[in-house]
Amino acid sequence: MNPSHTTHLNPQLGPRMAFSTGLRLLRYYQLSRPFAPTRLQTLRPGASELRFLSFSRSRSIRPVKSRRREVTAPAAAAAADGGNGSVVVKDGSGGNDGGRVVPTELHKEATEAYMSYAMSVLLGRALPDVRDGLKPVHRRILFAMHELGLSSRKPYKKCARVVGEVLGKFHPHGDTAVYDSLVRMAQDFSLRSPLIRGHGNFGSIDADPPAAMRYTECRLEALTEAMLLADLDQDTVNFVPNFDNSQKEPSLLPARIPNLLLNGSSGIAVGMATNIPPHNLGELVDALSVLIHNPEATLQELLEYMPGPDFPTGGLIMGTAGILEAYRTGRGRVVVRGKTDIELLDSKTKRSAIIIKEVPYQTNKASLVEKIAELVENKSLEGISDIRDESDRSGMRIVIELKRGSDPSIVLNNLYRLTALQSGFSCNMVGILNGKPQLMGLKELLQASILGFQMQCGGKTCKGIIVGLDNLDGVIDVIRKASSNASASASLRKEFNLSEKQAEAILDINLRRLTLLERNKFVAESKSLMEQISKLRDLLSSKKQILQLIEHEAIEVKNKFPTPRRSFLEDTDSGQLEEIDVIPNEEMLLAISEKGYAKRMKPNTFNLQHRGTIGKSVGKLRVNDTMSDFLVCHAHDHVLYFSDKGIVYSARAYKIPECSRAAAGTPLVQILSLSEGERITSVIPVSEFSEDQYLLMLTAKGYIKKVSLNFFPSIRSTGIIAIQLVPGDELKWVRLCSNDDLVAMASQNGMVILSFCDIIRALGRNTRGSIAMRLKEGDKMACVDIIPAIMWKSERGSEVGQGRGKRMKGPWLLFVSESGFGKRVPLSSFRMSPLNRVGLIGYKFSSEDRLAAVFAVGFTLADDGESDEEVVLVSQSGTVNRIKVRDVSIQSRYARGVILMRLEHTGKIQSASLISATESEAEEDETVPAVLDAAVV
Fold first, then answer.
1. Does the pLDDT value for residue 584 go beyond 70?
2. Which residue among the candidates 28, 114, 156, 215 is catalytic per the annotation?
C-alpha cells in the first residue's frame, strides 16, 4: 500500500466505521513516514459525498494523491481552515471539477457514528419489544423450535440441534449466547412462566452452569404455544428476510398475553438499560380485562387486581411505595425479603434455628450461604453457631443454628441488613415501542402490548381469509390461466395482494377440494363460508368485538394455565429495618465481672430478700474473678463502657446476650474492641444525650472532671478518649449529673466531701481535671455518688429522736462497708465543702473494714415517708443479696451500722447498686425492680 494514496472504503460500512478507519490509516501513515511534516487525509467515498479525515502535523500543507482524483491545493487549504481534528466533506454533485469541501467537526462525526451503533444495540440485541416482550434472540429461538416441530406434545430434541438451527438461519452470533438464552427460558427460577421445557441439567439457583448443549434436550412449553405461537401460521405478523436473505423470520410473535409483564426482562444496552419484574398470569389477565372494559381506569383500580410483581423464587415484598412509583413512572425500587421460619432445636437450652425457605429474586443461594459464613467468621454477625444448606429436590432449606441465649429476631434482622436475604429490585421499565426505546408505566405497557398489537394481528388474520372467499371466481380464473403451481401462487399474490402463505392456503384448501366435492356439498359449504365472511366482517368493523375476542383468548389462557401467587406483600412502610426496631425496650439487668465477662438477665431473676440473709448467687464466675458492676437499664439504652485507661466505648444494652443466672456470661472483648490488658471499670446507661447532662469522672488518685454528655453520642468501635490520665492513675468511677445536683465523694477510710456540681468546671474529653479530695497517707478514693437537685432542694428537716417511734427524715446517705455492714446518715449531717479538702467523717471503721459504696437514698418515698428503694449487694464470689433500704437503720456519722449481708464464705462486698421499686410488694415479699436511680459502684 502506498501511504500517499487514500483507501477506498466500502460505502456499506456507514458512519460507524469512519472514525476507527481513519485512526488505522493515520497510524499506518505515521509509521511509514515518521519524519515528514504532512497533513493526512483519509478519503471515504459515500453514495453522494466524499469525506476526509484530516490531521495536522505542522502548518505546511502537502496535498495527498488519490487513485480516483487529485486533491488540489484549494481543497487542502479549505481543509486546513477546519483546524485540527476536523472532518471535511467534499460534495460530489458537481462532478470531479465542480465539487466543494464542507468542514465538519470531528466530535460531531464521532457522535453520529456512536449514536448509530447505540441504536443498533438497543433495537437488535438488548431491549425487548413491548408487543411480544421478547428480544430478537429469544424470538428466533422460539420460532426455530416452532419450525422444527418441537411442540409440547412431541419428544424432546437435543439443544444443540436447536442452537444450530438458530445460528444457521436467523442469528449470526456465537453459539454460547444462543444456548445461554435458551437455558434461561427453561429455568423456573429465572422466568415466572418458563417458555421452554428442558430435559437435563439446566443450571440451578446456586449459579451452577448447565450441561453442554450436546447433553441437554428441550421442547416448547404448552403455554408458549398458546400464548405466543397460536396464530403464527395465519400470517398475523410481518415476516422479514433473515441475515442472508435466504429465509423469512417474524418481526414479532402474536402474543395473546403481555409477555413483557408476565416474565419481565433485563438488559443493558449503550447508555440505556431495562429491568422489568415478572408478574402473575391470572392477575395480569384480570388487569387486562379491567383496562379493556374501562380504558380510563386509574392505576389504583388496576392495582386492585394486580397488586404487585410475582417473582419466581417467591419471597416477601416489603411495602407498596416502590411498587406504586414503578407502576406510575416506570422507575421504582421494590424491596424483597426471603421467607424464613424459626424452629426450636432444644427446649431445655432454648436453642433455636432460622430456616430460610425462599430467597429474593436473582439471589445466588450458594453465595448467600458463603456471605453469612464470612460475616460470622469476621464477627460482623453475632449469635450464629452453625450454618448448613439442606436444600434438595423437595425445596429450599438453609438452616442457621443460633447460640444459646441469642435472640432470633435480632439475628434475623441482621441477616436482612447485612446479606442478600433482603435485597431491592430496581424497576426500570424500558421497552421498544414503534422502533424507539421508551420508559413506560403499568398502564402504558398494557395498552402498548395488547390493546394495539392484538387488534392489528386479529384484523390481519381475518383479512387473509376474506380475500380468498370474496374473490372465489377470480381466484379460479387466475389458477386456470397459470402454467404451474409456482406461477399460480405468484399470480394470486400479485392479483389480490396476498402473502405467500395465504396464496398457498388458497391453493391447498379451496381449489383442490372443488374438484372432489359434489354439488350439494359445495352449496352447503358456500353457505357456511358466507356466514363466516359475515361474522369476520362484523368483527373487523367493531372495535368492541375485537376487544372482546382479545379478552376471551386471554381468559382462556388464564384458565388453562392457572398458577398461584408466590410472592406475598407485607404491609409495611419500608423493608429496611434497623436492629433496634425489632427489640422491645424492656427493662433488664446487666452484670459485669472484674475480668470483663458480661451477661444480660431478666429483671425478676433476683427476688426481694430480707436484711441479714446470705443472698442468691449471681452465677458461675471464672477462677479468681469477682463481680464488678451490677445495674438496671433498658434494652435500647446506649451503654457507655469506661476503661481503666480513660477510653470510653459504646454499645446498645441488648448487644449483651441474654442468659440465665447460672451462666458465666460473654467476654466483653467479643462486644468491644478492647486493647490488651484493658479493663472496664465503670458502666453508664444513657437513654438520650441531653445538653444539660454531664459525666462526672473520678480517678483512683483523686482527679475529678466534668464533661458534657454531648461529646459521646457517636463513639467509633475502637473507642475515644474520655479523660487524660497521669502515669499510674486509673479511671475508676463515672456518674451522670447536672449542674444543680450535689456530688458526694468518700474515701475508703470513711471521709466524705459534699459539694455542688456547678463549681466543677466543664472540660473537654482530652483533659485531666482537678484534685477532688485531699487524702491522708494510706487512704484511697472509695466511691462517688450524685444527689439529684430535686432531692436535696426539698424542704425536709431532720430530727434525731430518742425512742423507736421517732425517726430521722430523708434524704440520707446510705453507706455500705466491705464487711457487709451498712447504715443511713441524714444528708443534713454533712455541710457543703469545696474540693481539695480532707472532708468530714461519715463512717467510723474498725482497722480491718473499709467503705465499699455510698448512695443518696430517699428519692422515692412510700406513703409513710420511708424510702421505697432497694439495694443490690454483690460479693466477690458472685453472691447477690437484694434488700429494702427502709430496713437499714438510720444512725449517726460515727456509728458502726448493722449487718446487711453475711459474708462467712463469700468474701467481701464487691459492688452494690440502687433500685427504685415501683410495684407494690407481693405477699411473699417479691417485687420487680424498675428504674435505676444510681449507677453501679
1. yes
2. 215
Cis peptide before 811 (omega within 30 of 0): yes
User: How many helices and strands (H and E) does the chain possess?
Assistant: 22, 47
CB 273 within 8 A of CB 257: no
Cα–Cα dist 414/419, whole Å: 8
Asked if 415 and 375 count as a contact pair (C-beta separation under 8 A), the reply is no
pLDDT per residue as tens digits for the range 698-748: 998 889 999 999 889 888 888 999 999 999 889 988 999 998 888 999 998
DSSP result, 25-59: HHHHHHHHSTT---EEEEEEE-SSEEEEEEEESSS
Q: CB–CB of 704/697 below 8 Å?
A: yes
Helix residue ranges per DSSP H, 72-174: 73-81, 106-121, 136-148, 159-169
Q: Please name the residues in contact with 593: beta carbons below 8 A apart, sequence gap of 6 or more.
A: 621, 622, 625, 626, 627, 628, 665, 878
Could you tell me the three cell numbers for 871?
A: 439495694
Q: How far apart are CA 151 and CA 145, in angstroms?
A: 8
- C-alpha–C-alpha distance, residues 247 and 232, integer Å: 16
Cell of 122: 438497543
The tally of CA atoms less than 13 A away on the side-chain side of residue 594 is 15
The lowest-confidence range among 67-71, 97-101, 470-474 is 67-71
State the Cα–Cα distance between residues 751 and 851, nearest whole angstrom.
Answer: 9
Q: What CA–CA distance (Å, rounded) separates 232 from 252?
A: 10
The Cα angle at residue 309 between residues 303 and 310, in degrees rounded to 5: 125
Rounded to the nearest angstrom, the gap between the alpha carbon of residue 159 and the centroid of all alpha carbons in its chain is 37
Catalytic residue list contains 305: no
The secondary element (H helix, E strand) that includes residue 777 is none
Give how far Cα 705 sits from Cα of 701, 839, 865, Å. 12, 18, 35
CA 79 to chain centroid = 56
